[in-house]
């Protein structure tokens, strides 16, 4: 199962589900946004590392964006190679910021 933790105020429920899945023994994957990381420290008082340790694999938020965009492109039968991955756009923006 893949779960996504965002910065929403119900993050404690996502952490509880992550604990339950870990105990159930099935493979778990997590996507944790930056705002979720901040909220983890505020609400339940956890570190991102503590929550990462609940999952078998942790993926960057760009992966879910790329997957969502890919599904839309598939629905309209648009070739994926015509578009840059979100992570590539983010890297490009960071390079521009560093140069200025």
Structure description:
It is built from 5 helices and 3 strands; from the N terminus they run E-H-E-H-H-E-H-H. It is mainly alpha-helical. The chain has 2 domains: 59 residues; 40 residues, no CATH class. Strands 1-2-3 form a 3-stranded parallel beta sheet. Strand 1, helix 1 and strand 2 form a beta-alpha-beta unit. The longest helix has 15 residues.
Strand tally, please? 3
End-to-end CA span: 41 Å
Can you tell me the overall shape?
elongated
Question: What structural class should be given to the helix and strand makeup?
Answer: mainly alpha
What is the spatial order of strands in the main beta sheet?
A: 1-2-3
Low-confidence stretches: none
**Rg estimate, integer Å:** 16 Å
- Give the averaged pLDDT, no decimals: 78
Helix amount, in percent?
55-70%
Total helical segments: 5
Largest sheet: 3 strands, parallel
Task: Write a brief caption for the model.
The chain contains five helices and three strands; from the N terminus they run E-H-E-H-H-E-H-H. The chain is mostly helical and 100 residues long.
Search tags:
elongated; single chain; 3-stranded parallel sheet; mainly alpha; 100 residues
Layout of helices and strands, plus pairs?
Elements: E1 2-5, H1 11-24, E2 29-32, H2 34-42, H3 48-52, E3 57-59, H4 61-75, H5 86-99
Parallel strand pairs: 1-2, 2-3
């Amino acid at each position: 199962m893949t779960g996504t933790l965002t910065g929403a105020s119900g993050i404690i429920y996502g952490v509880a589900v992550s604990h339950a899945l870990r105990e159930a023994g099935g493979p778990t994957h997590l996507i944790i946004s930056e705002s979720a990381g901040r909220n983890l420290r505020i609400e339940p008082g956890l570190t991102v590392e503590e929550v990462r340790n609940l999952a078998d694999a942790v993926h960057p938020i760009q992966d879910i964006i790329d997957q969502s965009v890919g599904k839309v492109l598939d629905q309209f039968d648009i070739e994926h190679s015509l578009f840059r991955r979100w992570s590539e756009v983010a890297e490009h923006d960071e390079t521009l910021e560093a140069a200025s």
